[in-house]
User: Which sequence fits this backbone?
């Protein structure tokens, strides 16, 4: 008889709006250049406000950009706001083998002001004029998942937070939590995060007072 495996509860903490702002504020203190600080500021902000998965912003490894990551040519900024982002998403058609399939539109949701649009415009204004993965270094090499995670943990440690309690998915956890606390309905949050089920509810971390 097969033993049933008990699934551990997800204990990762959310990246909140205030924590995100603090992370962005201190990035210039240890990033190797202004470009790198702006690059990670934009990626972290986009991860939060667009409910992105880390795989939609980074590549696993190597110099070639990920076919799953958002491309610079699929991003549109209108009236000082990020209007939409088109790319390859987790919930693509099951039979589709075309990794350039354009799924539903991703939006940056207004959870707190215009911080994302400003930082995003700063990053694209100094980005190398090349096509491909949206987030890349000044030499054109794509941002990797390892780099995204490493800078996040370094920033958390720098401001005195326990790095072990956060992960790359803490951005989506924080997005869902913030949207809930701001009064968005379950159906709205499912659309915002492109969830096809109620699994997002396991991401919500409402503070207990």
Assistant:
């Amino acid at each position: 008889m097969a033993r049933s495996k008990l699934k551990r509860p997800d204990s990762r903490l959310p990246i909140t709006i205030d924590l995100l702002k603090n992370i962005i504020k201190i990035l210039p203190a240890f990033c190797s250049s202004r470009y790198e600080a702006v690059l990670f500021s934009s990626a972290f902000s986009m991860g939060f406000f667009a409910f992105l998965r880390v795989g939609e912003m980074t590549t696993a490894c190597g110099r070639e950009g990920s076919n799953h990551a958002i491309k610079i040519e699929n991003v549109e900024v209108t009236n000082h706001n990020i209007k939409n982002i088109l790319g390859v998403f987790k919930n693509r058609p099951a039979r589709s083998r075309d990794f350039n399939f354009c799924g539903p539109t991703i939006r940056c949701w207004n959870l707190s002001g215009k911080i994302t649009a400003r930082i995003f415009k700063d990053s694209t204004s100094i980005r190398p004029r090349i096509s491909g993965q949206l987030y890349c270094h000044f030499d054109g090499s794509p941002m990797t998942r390892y780099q995204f995670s490493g800078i996040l943990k370094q920033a958390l440690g720098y401001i005195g937070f326990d790095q072990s309690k956060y992960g790359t998915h803490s951005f989506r956890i924080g997005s869902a939590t913030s949207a809930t606390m701001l009064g968005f309905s379950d159906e709205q949050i499912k659309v915002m995060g492109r969830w096809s089920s109620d699994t997002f509810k396991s991401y919500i971390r409402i503070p207990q007072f």
User: Anything to note?
Assistant: Confidence is low (pLDDT under 50) at residues 86-104.
